Each structure stands twice: as C-alpha cells, then as structure tokens.
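Handout, section 4.2: multi-component inputs.
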Amino acid sequence: MLTELLQGADAGGFVIIQDSIRCSGRHLLKSFINAALHREEAVHVLGFEVDEEELKDGVKGSAIDRVHFHNAYTDPLGWTDHPAFTVHQFCLEELTHLVKQSSHSRPATLVIDSLSWILRHRSPTAVCKTLHQLRKGGAVRAIIALLHADMHQKGTEGSVCHLATSVITIAPGMNGDQAVAKITKRSKSGKVMQDEEIFNINEDFTVIVQSKLGPKNTPTEEKEVDPTANLTFNLRLSDTERKAKEKLALPFVFSKEKKTALLHSGPGSGRILYEPDSNDDYDQEDPDDDLDV
Amino acid sequence: MFTELNSILNASPDTITQGEFILISDRKSDASFLIHHFLTFYLKARCRVCFLGLVQSFNHYHAVSQRLGVSLLQAKEKGQLVFLEGLSESLSVLSPRETNTGSHLGRGGEAMDFLRDPAIGLKSLYEFVRSSLSSSDGAEEWGPPVLLVDDLSVLLSLGVSVGAVLDFSHYCRVTVCSQLKGNVAMLARCDGEEEEDDGDDEGSERLLKGLTHQCSLTLHVQGLPTGYCRDIHGQVEVCWRRRRQCEGKYTQKKLFQYKVHDKGASFFAPGTSSAVL
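Output:
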C-alpha cells in the first residue's frame, strides 16, 4: 500500500506521516517529494523545521526547479522585521496565493514540514479548517504533512488524522536500516483499509517495501505440526488396528450389558442376604437409593 | 574537555563539525559534567562562545574549567567568551537599583526580562544571544560561534511555557547553526520516569521530546539501570540523528558508561570499567 500512496493516484488526497523521536519521518517525506517530482508535479514545501538546504539534499537534477521552498524556517513568528513566511499566514487565502504564484499549469502538491509546528502556535480547529478548505479548494492537488505524534495530545492528533485520507505511522524496525509503517487508508467510498509494511529508503529516496506484515486482526494460521512424523518408532495405526481399538470396551465404562451382568448375578454365584439389625441406620428415604449403579 | 568523549564523537579541537545542534539531557541524574566538557572543548577550539549560565555562578564554571585546563576569566577578557550569569542578572531585574555589571554588552538585564512576565516568552534572551554572537568586533580571530545553555529546564520552573522554550531553541538553531554555521549545545533535565502516553501539555517530558526532534546529536545521561555503583557513575546514550548522507540508517545509537574524576571523565563500553576488568 505504501507504493500506491507514493504513486499518488488519487487527487484531493491528504497524507499524514506520523513519526516519533524514536524514528524520524522526514526521510519518507523526502521520498514523497521525490515521487511527486517524478510525476512532473510542482511541489510547494512549507518548511518550518529544517532549512532549504537540508530538505533539498537528495533532490537531483532539473527537478530542483519544481520544488518551491517557502521559507518558514528562518522567522516563523515574525521576530525580525522581514519574515518570509510566518505561522500566522497559514490560512486558505495566503496559501492559495502562494501556490498560484509559482506553479502555473502543473498540478501542485503541498508538503508541510511540519504540521506539529503549526499546531503548537495555532488552535487545532483553525488548522483543521484550513486543511479542509485547502482540500476542497482545488488550488493544490494533494497535501502531504509530517506530524510528530509524541508532541500532541491524543485529541489533537486524532482530530487532524481524521481529516486525512491516509495516515502512515512510522516505527523503528528490527535493524537500523528498516522501519515499519502502519498505514490506514480511507477511500472515497468510506472503506477503511489497514496494512503494515517493513520498508527501507535508498540513498536516492526511493522506497523499497521489504515485506508486508498484513493487518493484525486476521489470525495468523500456523501449520499444525504432526507429532507422529520424524520418529524412530511407529506411532501410526493401520486401518485394522484402528477398528480393533474402537471396538475395545474400556474397563470402567459401564455399558448396558455389563451393568445387567453385574447387577443380576448369574446362576451359581453367591447371594447376599441382608437383615438390618437395631444398630443399623436403615433409612427409608436413603438419598442414595435412586442411584442406578 | 574529555579526550575519550572526543573520540566517541569523532571531534577534536582542530576539526569541528559545524551546524550541529547538540542536546544534552538527563533523567534523574546530573549531566552538567558534559556542559563543562563542551565549554572547554569549544574554547580550546578557538570558537567564539556565548554561554548562558542560568543555574550556577561564574566562579563555579571558572573553577571547574581551570581543572580542565581552560581559564574562563582570560577567555572573557580576550572577548572569546560572552557569559550571561543568570543568577546575578536576575537580581538586577528584580531590584532595579543594582547596577548592571554582569555582561559586557550591558544587555544582560534585558535578556532576563521573562522573569518579570514569563508569558512574553524568550525573545529578548534570543536577541541577547544573536547580538553577542553576530557582533563583528574581533570576530576574525575566532572560529565559528557556539551557544551553550545550562540549562533549559530551569526556564520551565521560572514560569516560561514549553512552547516558548522550543521557539527560543528553534530561533537559536536558525541563527547559530544555519546562518552563522556554528554549533549549539543545550542541557535539558527530566525528573520523572519516562511516560509512554504523555497526556500533559506542559512539562519537561514534552520539552525533551520537542528538543529531540530539533537536534542532530543527543547525549542522554542516566543512572545505571541496576542501581548505584561506586566505580561507574552512570551511562550515556549517544544518538546521531539527521545525518546528511542518508546511508539508510535513520539514527545511530551507542551506549557508554562513564565515571567522573577530579580532572575529567572517562567513558567506556558497558562492562569494560577498569574496576571490573
């Protein structure tokens, strides 16, 4: 599913890459940028957290002209006199203006690095409203945002992820090169698909999916191990042996024939005559009397 | 400076990497010995250092640095070191009659403005840092600028919000690392256990997470998980993040144990302490 998301088939999509301090999602974000550039799209990056040089590190060739880096890194709060882009400019009008200015006819992809920065300074409702308007507005074809899941309360994170069409949560993998991506994708029909994949990213930011772990809710089927295999002696039964085994009457299981044989003594066996005397407690209402033994 | 730590970090006073944001953190332990390392290291590397010493007096740092072979007084006189002594500057904020003799730029009092009203944030502290490191008098003889902060968590106790401290560290990173191509090293401390599900909005845990996202190198100091030991004072986890050449490794981590001596600290791989071997 990760490769499909990278190929970016659907327009109006909003992908959120959730990372944590244990595993950074910025490499995957760069992979998305590279994939969008391969599709000849214009990429607008709202860079709050890293500078232009670091973000463009790895983008080669002529594609670099199609990356429009809007510098929100140098002065996001307007502490100097000439801020390039501040966090307060994150609203529909400003962003539409920004995108329309630079890309002319190509579909534009908006990349936000990172949404956590914006959520720290604007209210979650305002951010969600702007994101929703951007998606419906048509100025950008797709939005890809990086979110640091461990920096926000669950409610904030949940509200923002609810807006997304796909959420990719990244965790560190078994060895240092690999990472695990848990993907939740919401299609237009309302169907939700989940997947878990192990991937690693090459130097040129192409993603290789190593294996799919599959969604966790299907029970893992394990092959039953045959205990009678690979032994030096034979534990298996042939058909005649099985029939003889089933015919065998077990010693302490009472069938009807055996019961009547025991209870009604045959000819020649002894009889027991019992006369209760005064010391015996012969209770007419003996609760054990109705036992059929 | 600690020579073993230099080899671990692949750094030496002659060749220093630029543009690094180093986060020194500790949990129920004391990582201030690493601040002394970086202070003496960068002074020996002939860098221009701005040191925000918010928790101890100048004499304390001076005494420790002398044992490590560097004189802070001389560095200050030569103009290599700009020292903001938070403790004495805060007095001048709280009682304006005192004359402000702390910082040679005469702006130390303004830098601690947040003490009057923590809600205004740390913009004036950032302005102090920016003006100390980007002033061009005598800048030619010194190397890249370095900012050291000891420590950020005390700002939280003084009423500054986590968001304001993260903004301050962001702006310091922009100015010192990206624009001036220098380095930043900050200390942040944590008291409690690490909580997986952090529901609270404010607090040193959130600050630590935010700083970890911003930095390129973390040194996390903790006590030994097995308890107190006389010969090993704790463990340091060194974690490199955001490296330029993407070799496919997301982060690289190394764990060391350390022991602090009178004139330094020694670092060794776990289990190889000289007391044990």
